[in-house]
Amino acid sequence: MALFELERNANFEQLIRHLEASSNPDIRRRAAEILGSLETSADDTVTEGQPRSVRDDVVDALITASQDDESDEVRAAAIDALDQYGQDALEAFIGELSGQDFENLAEWKKAKVLARGLSADRAELRMAAATGLGRIGEDNVVKALVNRLDDPDPRVRKRVARALGRIESAGSVPALAKRFHADTYAVRIEIAYALADIGTDNALRELIDVADAEDEVLRRIAVDALGRLGSTEAVEVLANALSDETDIVRRTAMFSLVQLLSEAPSNASHQVREKIVGELEAADTDEVIDPLIEILDRSTETAQRRNAAWLLGRVANDNDGQTEGAQDALIETMGDDDEMTSKFAATSLSLLDSDGLELRLLELVEDGLKDEELRVKALFVLGKIGTDTSRRRLSSFVERTDSDRLRKRGFSALSKLGGVGTVAGDPI
After folding, report:
1. pLDDT for res 405
2. At 106, is the secondary structure helix, strand, or coil?
């Protein structure tokens, strides 16, 4: 059975078997990553008649892999998976490797012990110590973490940077910035995310500077991280990146702009939205519409799809010949399982009225093979953009449809179109 099927079915027994016995290090690494991602399912899984929980079995397997696997990448993945299972799982690993008993220790004492672990001979212990310190979040360990940014093992440096980002230590920005310009790409990625999590002015300046670097990979890293800030300062930089010479940077910039809508604090969300719409309206249409359509087509993240649907109605411009493609994507998205995404798509579609849209929606409404929810949303849009053609055809439709819901929504649309003798329905 393929790993993705084991993940979908939360088959812990087989995943542990792959982690412990596969001869392929890529499979062992992926098994560790999947086991980490299934942490919630492990908590919910009960094995009848067994004294141990599934979670115990998974943690034990990950601890063993973290110590004994012959592959550096597998050991690193196993430690990150333990991180998913919480501080207790990390401490169990560190305790087994170091002989230190963490039970009943106060958090500050644990932090002190973990800080000593940053100087351990084994890289795996240093990695776990850095990860644990990031989870505890004590400010008094920042100096010890900063000192390990020059650790000889890049796997340790990655987790030190991640820990500093978790702690959100403003004092670590200069040291992080220095490594940002002189490390491997994998470490730079973690540093970029750490700077975004810290989010101070000097951290933002570092990311903005790198967003204009000659190195394509560095630009992509910085543009990706800027989407986590949720601030207007990042919007202009990301909008400029939409015209980057490299496709991957352009598309990353759009994903970051969409992500930024989700990250914006509530007291600044309106300002961020207005800033993003203004910048996107001024950008080249090809650089904006296609990536938004791609998000609707491919993304599995609900927040991304909601924001992409919302943005499309505000930046697609018929004069640029892009409305039809945007309409196609929004019509399909109106049937989304997420109600808010579906509503955003319908509202955006109503803003993109052009020749042919009314007839397309009428055909959709009248097609009894189409999903009812999709037809309901089409009726909502027709209530906003319909003409006499809609009024005539919907008058006939509500008389012959067998669906009470479609009839009610049809009457609502007719009422908005000034139909005679109709009754108002609820908005979608």
Report:
1. 93
2. coil
| DSSP 3-state of 345 | helix
Phi, psi of 105 (to 5 degrees): -80, 140
- 279: Cβ–Cβ under 8 A, 6 or more apart, which residues? 235, 236, 238, 239
Q: Tell me how far the alpha carbon of residue 101 is from its chain's centroid.
A: 37
At 319 the pLDDT is 52
Residue with tokens 């609502």: 412
Q: What pLDDT was estimated at residue 425?
A: 44
Per-residue pLDDT, 139: 73
3/301 Cα distance (integer angstroms): 21
Q: What angle do CA 179, 184, 185 make, to 5 degrees?
A: 105
The 3-state DSSP composition of the chain as helix, strand, coil percent (nearest 5) reads 75, 0, 25
Name the residue with tokens 């906003």. 384
Alpha-carbon distances, residue 60 vs 48, 52, 68, 143, 339 (angstroms): 19, 11, 12, 32, 41
Residue 255: closest CA among 190, 304, 326, 219: 304
Which tokens go with 428? 């979608």
The DSSP symbol for 234 reads H
Average pLDDT estimate for 365-374 = 91
In the predicted model, is pLDDT for residue 366 greater than 70?
Answer: yes
pLDDT at 422 over 60: no
Q: Which two tokens stand for residue 247?
A: 């496709």
Question: 136 in helix, strand or coil?
Answer: helix
Question: What confidence category does residue 211 fall into, taking pLDDT thresholds of 50, 70 and 90?
Answer: confident
Torsion of CA 378, 379, 381, 383, to 10 degrees: 170
Query: Residue 232 has what pLDDT?
Result: 77
User: What residues contact residue 55 under an 8 Å CB cut-off, 6+ apart?
Assistant: 42, 43, 45, 85
Name the strand (E) or helix (H) holding 202. helix 201-210
Mean pLDDT of the chain: 85
